[in-house]
């Protein structure tokens, strides 16, 4: 493969960002002492093409596979989908679901017995259910026959993926973590002759100007400090909660004990601050109702001036189509990132991280009649050739090499039409075409304290599936009530904490602390 050495360099670069942050966790699950044994010969090896590379196809009729995937708007008959089917000798029937409906739809499939050959989940709650369900294929038992799967992740990543029985049942997307960054409209800061805020007081002053002093000069009251979208994961409010040392609906270690940040005293102070911002019109009031697509369109149009934003807004080569729409809407606009805000407590914390296991995980149904074809598909997608193809397409037609950089020969609209960057099935995100500004932002995110790892990431206990989802929903409901002023923070927060513990929080907290000590 042309420029194969450069691809390897890019793969390592993408992996190194994730690896660097994954080592920060305070507590990780225990692993079995002995490695998993190889499975019986149910599969066949991929064929060598004579160049040291493997191809995934087999002779005979294509095997039909049903896939349940995070919704990326993959279209039937698209170029990328058709090529993957041709190369792997499969016919892919793809069911897609948005993040907020994935768990429910997957639960319905599991209950009905109509289990897809390959399926995904985003939440650790669903992953915990799946891992205890005895329906998952131990992927590590098939590595000898599918080396691209084994070689697609470093050994340290696979160690993180091990379940407590020593087996590996899922493959996570390997990419930048976290993917969000605290960003400001740099051109607005210049307009108001202000520096990047470092304290809550400085932040409030700029947030007020961003929302109230018509920074875009259009004469319309249509700008805000920040917004958010449903399902409200709180990551879009982390810059405020984190300034008070807490992250709600996120496990934190405090004085040697694991607690949810939602019930810590700092959360109350953060809610008071957020209520003030909301009541003064500094927060987009549609944060309660917006979905991801509306939020993205607002980010790209430049209406937010001071809030967590997707990292790709800094990539001048337009990874994931953020930078170009932003500049088209704001020709003089620019974004700058800022540090964790101080002033709320003695020990502010950075933003939450996605699970080190990947923001979406892929599983194979162990009783599928098409296990071999499912693994053949994944093996191709995890190969250097396959991973490069699903990211960039065909060399010479969709991209070219210039030194160690990929230069795209098509625009984002064409890439979307082809279904490039949509097959997040064990993908390793490549940044071969990205601009230096993106790498600078990635380096910033690796700074001490900028991001806060989950101390129990990878721990799976029944209580996390049985109790935690309802408590997380309770937190969202009560916190929104207090932010928008339906319930006074002064009395509402204390009642919320009592309610949280009464509805299973005590049992959950005890169980998670016990599990962490056992698996440490």
UniProtKB/TrEMBL annotation:
PROSITE patterns: PROKAR_LIPOPROTEIN. Residues 1-32 form the signal peptide. InterPro entries: Bact_solute-bd_prot1, SBP. Pfam families: SBP_bac_1 (PF01547). Keywords: Cell membrane, Lipoprotein, Membrane, Palmitate, Signal. Residues 30-62 are annotated as: Disordered. It comes from the Bacteria. PANTHER family: ARABINOSE-BINDING PROTEIN-RELATED, POLYGALACTURONAN_RHAMNOGALACTURONAN-BINDING PROTEIN YTCQ. This is ABC-type glycerol-3-phosphate transport system substrate-binding protein.
